[in-house]
Every structure is written in C-alpha cells, then in structure tokens.
C-alpha cells in the first residue's frame, strides 16, 4: 500500500507541477511575443538588441525568426533546437507548444506566429529545476514508502504475534489436556478481548475435569462395592468345588462355568480399579529406575512362562512404577496366551532415547482395521484370535498405563507369522545419537 501511495502521489505531483509550469511559460511567452511584435513594427528594429533588453529569466532562451534569419538570446539555443514539427505548425499561423529534450535537458518550447511583422517567436523554457524537484520528491516518497513498509511490517508482526500467541497458548493447552494433563489451564490475561475466551476455556476444562473425575470415581466406587459380594460368591463356589464329587456331571459342568465367569468378573473388577488409578496419574514417588530385563524376567516367571523366550538388550533402564509396568507386560503375555495362539518371544531393543519391548505371538495377527480399536475400553477383536473370555480392558489398561509413563504401544505384524505388540518407553539411560543395543524389526 505504501508503494502504491508513493507512486500515485508522485504521478499526481508530476502532472500538477508540469501543467502549472507549462501554463506559466505560455503566459510569459504570449507577453514576450506581444512585446517583440511591437518592437519589430517600429522602423529600424534591432532584433539582437530587443532580445538582450528582454533579459529572459529562469534559464529561458528566446528565438526569433524574421526575414529568413534566426536570432537567439543564447548561443546554445537556435533554429536546430526548435523541433521541426513545431516550426511547421507555427509557420501555418497557429501557436503551439511541445515538450522535448535539448542537449539531454527536458524543456518546453512555445511557438507564437507574428503575422503582422512576418515573424515567428519561440521561447525555450528548460525544466531542469522542475526535474530536480521531482527527483527530490521521488527520493523522499521512496524513503517514506520504505519506512512506512518497514513500520507496517513491524506493526503487522507485532499484531500477528499478539493475535496468534493466545491461539498458540490455547492450542498448546488443548494438546496437553488431550494428552491427559487435565490440570492444564490458560494463564490470566489483562486483555479484555481475550479475558472472556480464557475464562470460558478454563471453565470448560474445569467442568470436563470434574466430569472425568466423577466418572472415574463412579467406576472405582462401583468396582469396590462389587468386590464384597464377589468375594462371597467366590468363597461359596470354592466350597461347592471342594464337594465336586458329590455333584452330578451336569452340575459339575455348571459349576465350572460359574468358576470361569467369576474369574473373568474378578479380572474385570481388578482392571476397572487399576484404570481408575491410572486415570488419577502417576505418583512421582512411585517412579523409580529399573532394569527392563529383570522386570520382564520377573513378569514371565509370575505368568508361568519360561524366560527362554526373552532376548535382546540386557542393559536397558527405564523409569516408572514397577508394579504398573509389570501389569502392562503381564497383560500382553496373557493376551498372547489367550488370543494369540501362545507367546512366541519377548525382545528388548535399546534405541538412543527409547526402549522397545516386542511381544510376539503365534496367532493369526490383528487385522489392520482393528489395530487401533483393540486398545479401546471393552473392545474385543471381531476375528478369531483364540478364546473370547477376555474382559476387553486388558489392552486399554496397557495403553493408558504406557501413556502415563510417557510411552506408546501399538500393534504390528510379526515377521513370518503372528502378531506383535510393541511397547515404547523413555530410557532412563539415554544413549548417544545413533547408538542401538539390539536390533529387530518393529
């Protein structure tokens, strides 16, 4: 805009100044032409003396064509300085003017016929001074345009930052909230236009936080309240199981179904309670550095698995809640046994700043369309991957616990045949760039 304004201003100023100069030169030329005509009408007129007496100012030059002779008040201006087109028009008895350049200098040439004395009068007015003024104006306008452009750019950057910074703050806060940090709030602002937005955003997050906490408490309270009747049922069923021999075969089968469903119900309540604890966040005092190899050895042993399936890096350290991480890997091992045709291998891969644990099974794998859905709560695979006795919470608990530790979990295909679950956790003993302590496709 500043450039357009400068160009427009320059063009208007140039047009106005040129027209003003041309009108002034025309008026003076007509006055001088009348004076020359009057002097030439007198007897014994001396043209050089007339031109000298007129004493032209502002660098103008006077030229008279009389009796086939050319007279000039300047040695630098003469017949050759008058454009032929102008001489032809004046010779036809018509006054005219033209803009031209004489020795590289712009000038206005006015021609006035003097038929009463059979002469022609020309006045050459240079525009050097006007050109210099216009050049100065152009420099000033250009400098002003540059200053205005820089000032506008600076103001625009400042204004855009003032507008974008709050939006970035909102986006950052929303990302943190989406990542589970429900205590995130926008800082107060003195800007009255943003205060309403900040207040509404914080109120919305407060309401959301309260609702999530209320739902989590409800799930935890319900799960806790169900433990007492569940314990009573389990005790009663154990009494019946001890007298199994006294029951008929049909009653024994019914008892086995009840035992199986009670075990599933118990695991469901345990997972619900654990999910409620995970939703409350990871307590800083519960986090401790640990050897990932030793943790997996212990988990495999408690799950009744041989440690021969464990391979990879032995020196990888992670930081977290040992009991919760043990539950993560126990759930993945249990998932491989129940739904994946059995556990095939557990591999530790140490990357520069991440530790990967690959849990492989011998099942048919997980279809691509279900690889994200299976980590949702109460999600079960649509395709057969073994028993359907799961609670639908095991993998959800894995995902949320790993996320609380700053990691991620995903499902992939095992090279050859089977499924693979990959757990990625931050390393407590980060390696230099590019260092890897064990290989393996993920």
From TrEMBL:
SMART domains: HAMP, HATPase_c, HisKA. Its EC number is 2.7.13.3. Residues 221-429 form the Histidine kinase domain. It is found in: Cell membrane. Residues 161-213 form the HAMP domain. The keyword Phosphoprotein applies. Keywords: Kinase, Membrane, Phosphoprotein, Transferase, Transmembrane, Transmembrane helix, Two-component regulatory system. It catalyses: ATP + protein L-histidine = ADP + protein N-phospho-L-histidine. It holds the Pfam family HisKA. GO terms for cellular component: plasma membrane. GO terms for molecular function: phosphorelay sensor kinase activity. This is histidine kinase. It comes from Thermasporomyces composti.
């Amino acid at each position: 805009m500043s450039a357009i304004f400068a160009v427009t201003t320059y063009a208007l100023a140039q047009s106005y100044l040129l027209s003003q100069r041309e009108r002034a030169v025309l008026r003076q030329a007509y006055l001088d032409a009348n004076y020359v005509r009057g002097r030439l009408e007198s007897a014994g007129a001396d043209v050089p003396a007339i031109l000298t007496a007129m004493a032209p100012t502002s660098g103008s030059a006077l030229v008279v064509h009389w009796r086939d002779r050319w007279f000039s008040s300047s040695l630098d201006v003469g017949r050759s300085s008058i454009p032929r087109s102008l001489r032809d028009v004046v010779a036809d008895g018509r006054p005219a003017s033209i803009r031209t350049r004489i020795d590289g200098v712009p000038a206005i040439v006015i021609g006035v016929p003097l038929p009463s004395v059979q002469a022609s009068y020309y006045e050459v007015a240079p525009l050097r001074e006007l050109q210099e003024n216009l050049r100065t104006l152009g420099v000033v306008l250009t400098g002003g345009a540059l200053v205005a452009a820089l000032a506008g750019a600076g103001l625009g950057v400042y204004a855009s930052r003032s507008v974008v910074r709050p939006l970035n703050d909102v986006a950052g806060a929303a990302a943190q909230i989406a990542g589970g940090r429900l205590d995130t709030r926008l800082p107060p602002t003195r800007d009255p236009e943003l205060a309403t937005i900040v207040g509404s955003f914080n109120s919305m997050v407060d309401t959301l936080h309260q609702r999530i906490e209320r739902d989590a408490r409800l799930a935890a309270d319900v799960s806790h309240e169900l433990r007492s009747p569940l314990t009573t049922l389990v005790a009663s069923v154990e009494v019946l199981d001890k007298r199994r021999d006294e029951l008929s075969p049909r009653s024994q089968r019914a008892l086995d179904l009840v035992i199986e469903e009670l075990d599933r119900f118990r695991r469901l309540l345990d997972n619900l309670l654990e999910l409620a604890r995970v939703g409350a966040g990871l307590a800083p005092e519960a986090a401790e550095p640990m050897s990932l190899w030793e943790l997996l050895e212990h988990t495999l042993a408690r799950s009744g698995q041989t440690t021969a399936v464990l391979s990879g890096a032995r020196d990888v350290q992670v930081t977290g809640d040992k009991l919760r991480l043990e539950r993560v890997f126990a759930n993945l091992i249990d998932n491989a046994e129940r739904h994946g045709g059995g556990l095939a291998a557990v591999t530790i891969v140490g990357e520069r700043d991440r530790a990967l644990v690959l849990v492989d099974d011998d099942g048919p794998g997980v279809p691509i369309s279900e690889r994200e859905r299976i980590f949702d709560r109460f999600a079960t695979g649509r395709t057969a991957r073994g028993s359907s006795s799961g609670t639908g919470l095991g993998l959800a608990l894995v995902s949320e616990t790993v996320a609380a530790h700053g990691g991620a979990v995903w499902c992939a295909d095992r090279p050859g045949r089977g499924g693979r679950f990959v757990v990625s956790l931050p390393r407590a003993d980060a390696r230099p760039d590019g260092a890897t302590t064990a290989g393996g496709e993920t």
